[in-house]
Amino acid sequence: MCFVLRSDPGNDLHRRLQKLQSRFTWDLKKEDLELDDLSKQLQHDIDLRWSTASYSCLLSILRYLQGKPEEALSLLTESEEKTRECYGQESELRLIVTYGDLAWLKYHTEDYVQSQTYCQRVNHPPDPSTDLHPEVYGEKGWTFLKFSSSYYTKAEDCFCKALKLQPDDWEWNNGYAIVLYRTEQESPATEQLRRALEINPDDGVLMSMLALKLVHDTNKHTEAKGLVKKALEVGQDNTQVTRYVAKYLRNQDQVDESIDLLKSMLEKKSQSSFIHHQLALCYEKKKNKLLGKRRSLAITRFTFHLAVSQIF
């Protein structure tokens, strides 16, 4: 992220901050980020407890960019507590990036003593065979994946490096599968989605992504239907599952079923931009097949949901 350094009490703090692994040093550009949309998506995931502690860190950076440093600090502190609860004695490696973010945030709020303290906590050199710990590569990969499609290549590279060091980690496998899916890499994406599901078999998002891939790339409709059914069972309240299953149904010309599914999710989550966008796509497809008043109604609904998706 590009920030102008304020004058600080000494050059040593300046140098140490620049060397930290942190979202403040990963060349994230504000103009690449849809701040409001990203904030709402991350807050939604955090509220429904689908997320790992890293989501709080991601949201904290967005809050800082939105001019809310106190809220950003609160989220980072919350993330540190969640990480310690989840990983116990192994939490320090998972906190390397969080400490870096805290050091930078304290610096930007002119709390130089605390900034120095957090700098000192990052004292875990990686194995000589690699530049970074797998936990850092993974955290970096999720940041690039979540923040912007323009960073997908960087995300893929980070997950690859994390998996070379920890090939069975479910988070890195999930992230790698998702980025391959989103960059439309056919065979590698399908193989990695299967691999990720072997490690994390109840992930509805991965199931629905694999179903879409199977139908699109190999016409394996029977397996895809089974995956969609199970995805809805395990992820019925997950907007991402709904998004991909609705796309699957729409692609199978089951437009009304897709609309019903999306509407049921809107009753739970009315401000989800990508749910409104999926509804707009459904009505766009529907209007092309209708005549008269029914076509006019479909056009009206298409226009409405498209507009709402852009607002949220």
CATH 4th-level superfamily of one domain:
Tetratricopeptide repeat domain
Quickly give the CATH architecture of one domain: Alpha Horseshoe
Q: DSSP strand (E) fraction?
A: under 5%
- Mind telling me the CATH class of one domain? Mainly Alpha
**Average pLDDT for all residues:** 85
- Main sheet makeup: none
Question: In sequence order, what are the helices and strands, one letter per element?
Answer: HHHHHHHHHHHHHHHHH
Radius of gyration: 21 Å
Number of helical runs? Answer: 17
CATH topology of one domain: Serine Threonine Protein Phosphatase 5, Tetratricopeptide repeat
Specify the helix fraction band: over 70%
Helices and strands: which structural class?
mainly alpha
Overall geometry: globular
Provide the low-confidence segments as ranges: 2-7, 304-312
Number of strands: 0
N- to C-terminal distance: 25 Å
